[in-house]
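Q:
Got a chain?
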Amino acid sequence: MCRFCNAMLPDWKAQLAPVPQAPVEPVMVVSLGGKAVKMRVKPGPEGMAMFRQQVRSLFNIPDDVEFECSFKCKAPSGDTIQLDGMASYEAATHCASLMAAQRAATSGSRRAAATAAAAPEAPASPTTVAYPQPHGHTHGAVQQCQRVYA
C-alpha cells in the first residue's frame, strides 16, 4: 500500500524481477564461526521456520538463544546487496530463486555446449549467503558471525 495515497501497489517481486519460468531449488550458504554450509531453502513462513531449525541444528544454537541473520545476495543486476534481519528472509529467498533460475538457464546452454565438446560442467555456486547472529550466551560465550563469501 502506498504510504502517500493509500493505493494498493502491485507485488514487489513481480516489479523487481520476473518470476522464474521453471521451478528451481534456491541454495544459500550459511556461514557462522568459520563454518560454511550450503542448504536448500524454501520461501514463505514454513520455509523460514525450516531455515531457522536447520541453522540451529547445523551450528548447535540452543533453542533458548535467539538469532538474526544478515543476507548478502547477488541481485539479477549483478550488484551485491545486503538484507538485514529475518524479516528479509523472503526477499533473500526470492533473490536466490532468481539467480538459481538464471544459473539453470545458463547451465542448460552450457550443458549443450559441454556435451558437444565432451567437457564436464562445473557445479553452480550459490549467490545468497546468510550470516546468523545469535543473541545470548552459548556455553558461556556469545557466538560471533564470520562473514565469508562463498
About this structure: The beta strands are 27-32, 35-40, 66-74, 80-84, 128-135. The radius of gyration is 18 Å.
